[in-house]
Amino acid sequence: MKPKVSENLNPQLSAAAPEKDPKDTEENKDDEEQEKSTCCDRVPYASVGDALFSSLVVAPLVVSVWRGTWGLMEQHRALFPYAQIFAMGILIHVAFSFIKTRLFARSQNAWQHGAGHWLWERFVSKLYTYIFVLACIMHWRGGWGIFDGVVDAVIPNMDDPHSYISSSIFKESSCSTLFPGRARQKCVEALLV
């Protein structure tokens, strides 16, 4: 959406601004009419349809993609070690944050260059989306895998006779990190009971 002519984007120049041209007020009217025509209030049931579509179609598909990809990574653990996929997910996110504006600018007017260019841009868009989804899942799975490994290392097997001591130390350190002062003592007392 273009900025409105009536908006003063630089307050320092407002005092030195020349008188408004009648043409500017016509543009303002056009902007106001465009805002009114694109307002979502004119279709009162659109939000209900959006909510139903999101809940019944989009959400199950998103869950299916996440669960399916996560499950494939679980079946082939040797190919997807936690630390490597965590780092790879971060790298892909950073790289995509740098190139996304370039990709979006390329595909903005793709249809004007012909059907072949439009098809290529659609393919690149789908590939970008697929790689981004994989990066998100790798990042989350890697992070949770690393967290599980740390917890397993800190809290040993409960059949071990020394597990009470090490779990108490872990609980006390968790309480001291999360709660200050008197709340820390109450937290430790509650966990050690």
UniProtKB/TrEMBL annotation:
The keyword Transmembrane applies. The chain crosses the membrane at residues 51-73, 79-99. InterPro entries: Fuseless. Keywords: Membrane, Transmembrane, Transmembrane helix. It comes from the Eukaryota. Pfam families: Fuseless. The keyword Transmembrane helix applies. Residues 1-38 are annotated as: Disordered. PANTHER family: FUSELESS, ISOFORM A. This is Uncharacterized protein. The lineage of its organism: Eukaryota, Metazoa, Ecdysozoa, Arthropoda, Hexapoda.
